[in-house]
Amino acid sequence: MKLAGKIALVTGGSRGIGRATALAFAAEGADIAFCHLNDDAKADETAGEIRALGRRTLHRSVDVADIAAGRGFAEQAARELGPIDILFNNAGINIRKPFEGYTEEEFDRIFAVHVKGMFFMAQAIYPAMVARGQGCIINVASQRGLKGAVNSAPYSSAKAAIMGFTRALAWEATPKGVRVNAIAPGPVVTDLTATMTPADRQAFIDALPVGRFGRPEEIAATALLLAGPDGGFYVGATLSPNGGDVMY
Ligand code: NAD
C-alpha cells in the first residue's frame, strides 16, 4: 500500500473531493482526520467507510476560517492519531454572482475560507513536519484560478492566490523535506457544482473537450499521486485534472 502507516488530515472531508480523497488515502493505508462545516450526517458516513477499510479516523465540524479552531483540530488530530504526514487542504465554498454584486462580507468570506484557512492550516501543521524532516501539503485550487470564469470573481481570485501560496511555500519547505503542491480541478460533480443553473452547467459541458464533468475520484487519484511514493519530483506544481478545460 502506498500510504501504509501515514496520517493524513483532510479539510472538507465529509463529501465531494475531500471525501473521495480521504477514502483513496485510507484505501492505501493512511489513517484520516478530517473536518467539515456543519455536515455531521455525511461526515459520519465517510468516517464509517474509512473504518470499514480498517483505518483509524476522527472528524469534527471546524470552520477553517477560524484560525484558532483549525489549529485546535490539527493539534487534536496529531494527539489522537499521530504526527500528520499529509495535509489535504481542500475545504471550499463558492458564491456565484456577477462581479458588481459582491459585498465586502462575501469577498472576505471566500478569501477567509480558501486563502486564510489554507494558509493557517498549513502553518499549524508545518513545524511538526519540518521537525521530522518529512511531509506533504496539497492545496486545492481550481481551473478557475487559471483561466477565470464568469460569476466567480472572488473565487477565481482566491484560487489563483492559493497557487501563488503553494509556490512560495514550496521554496521554503522543500529543503526541509516538506513537499508542497496544488491541484486545480476542472468542474466536478459535487454539491458545490449542484447549485449551478442547468444553462450554466450545459455551457460548461459544451466547452469541455471531454464532454462531461469529472468525478471526485478522478481528483483523488491526482492527490494520491502527489501524496504517494511516485510524487517525489513534484514541487510547487499545480496539477490540473480538468477534462481539457485548460491545456498548458
Ligand atoms: P463540496 O461542497 O462537495 O464539499 C466541500 C467540503 O468542504 C465539505 O466537507 C464542507 O463541509 C467543507 N467546508 C466548506 N466550508 C468549510 C469551512 N469553512 N470549514 C471547514 N470545512 C468547510 O465541494 P467540493 O466540490 O468537493 O470542493 C472541494 C474543493 O475543491 C474546494 O476547495 C473547491 O473550491 C475545489 N474545487 C471544486 C471543483 C468542483 O467542480 N466541484 C472544481 C475545482 C475546485
Automatic annotation (TrEMBL):
Residues 6-186 form the Ketoreductase domain. It holds the Pfam family adh_short. One of its GO terms (biological process) is monocarboxylic acid metabolic process. PROSITE patterns: ADH_SHORT. InterPro entries: KR_dom, NAD(P)-bd_dom_sf, Sc_DH/Rdtase_CS, SDR, SDR_fam. Signal peptide: none annotated. Gene3D superfamilies: NAD(P)-binding Rossmann-like Domain. Belongs to the short-chain dehydrogenases/reductases (SDR) family. This is Ketoreductase domain-containing protein. It comes from Reyranella soli. The lineage of its organism: Bacteria, Pseudomonadati, Pseudomonadota, Alphaproteobacteria, Hyphomicrobiales.
